[in-house]
Specification:
This is Acyl-ACP thioesterase. By secondary structure, this protein is an alpha+beta fold. The chain folds into two domains: 6-136, Hotdog Thioesterase (Thiol Ester Dehydrase, Chain A), CATH 3.10.129; 156-246, Thiol Ester Dehydrase, Chain A, CATH 3.10.129. The protein has helices at 25-42, 47-52, 126-132, 175-183, 188-193, and strands spanning 6-11, 55-66, 75-85, 90-97, 103-115, 120-122, 135-136, 156-161, 194-203, 212-219, 225-232, 235-246. Strands 1, 2, 3, 4, 5, 6, 7, 8, 9, 10, 11 and 12 form a twelve-stranded mixed sheet that branches. β10 and β11 form a beta hairpin. α1 (25-42) runs antiparallel to α4 (175-183).
């Protein structure tokens, strides 16, 4: 049986929204990770305890589904649950709901634990997962990989420099920063006339401080699907598939 669901309430404030006044994509993930961190702290397995053992969580993949984005001033209920794990991987679910229980956002994620100095995967301590009451499995429930960019077709490219403030306490680029790099190249006109409904992102190689990032994308003929990749030099760091609906 999966572990208990951790719940917290949050009021959306203006600086968490984009130009539409709705909760921005990076902030959706920031709120999810906030709930995850608070869940760990409540169980005595927070960032301080992990870092004391020179370990930390890194996300490998997210699968996001949006029913409706909340707006500034809305009260949301953030929920998270450690679903299952094996020695090296853990599956965690997140939800954003209205106080009445209407679903707004659902996220499925796969995490791994790393040695903070060597930046290599390590086994997840059994005591840690016991605290979360997650289900131990031989093989975790995988998320399908996002469709890759067609290397035989041209891409639109935009470049970014990795700044000091892009790095978080796990000593790598904050996960939410990747979403800025993904969607910013699409441009204001597209983003103001389309609403994101699904995002599947898979992280391959960490982006480090001081690197130069290339964000590439391709778009479907009907402009309802975009395919993305983030590269540093010739290294593929991240790939993603985004599905959209046109605003009426």
């Amino acid at each position: 049986m999966s572990g208990d669901i951790f719940t917290q309430e949050h009021t959306i404030v203006y600086y968490e929204t984009d130009q539409t006044g709705k909760l921005s994509l990076p902030m959706i993930f920031n709120l999810a990770i906030l709930a995850s961190a608070n869940h760990g702290a409540a169980l005595g397995q927070g960032e301080e305890e992990l870092h004391a053992n020179n370990t930390g969580w890194v996300v490998l993949q997210y699968d996001l589904h949006i029913t409706k984005r909340p707006q500034a001033g809305d009260v949301v209920i953030i929920k998270t649950q450690a679903q299952e794990y094996n020695p090296y991987f853990a599956v965690r679910n997140f939800w954003l709901e209205t106080p009445a229980g209407d679903k707004l956002v659902a996220i499925k994620s796969v995490f791994a634990m790393i040695d903070m100095e060597q930046r290599k995967m390590v086994r997840i301590p059994q005591s840690l997962m016991d605290a979360y009451e997650a289900t131990k499995v031989r093989h975790i429930e995988k998320i399908p990989a996002p469709q890759a960019i067609d290397i035989n077709q041209p891409t639109v490219k935009k470049e970014y420099h990795v700044r000091y403030l892009d790095i978080d306490s796990n000593k790598h680029v904050n996960n939410a920063q990747y979403f800025d790099w993904l969607i910013d190249p699409l441009g204001a006109e597209f983003l103001q006339t389309h609403e994101l409904v699904n995002l599947n992102i898979k992280y391959a190689t960490e982006v480090r401080y001081g690197q130069e990032v290339e964000s590439h994308y391709q778009i479907s003929d009907d402009q309802l699907v975009t395919w993305h990749q983030i590269k540093t030099d010739d290294t593929l760091n991240t790939q993603a598939e985004l599905k959209w609906r046109a605003n009426n």
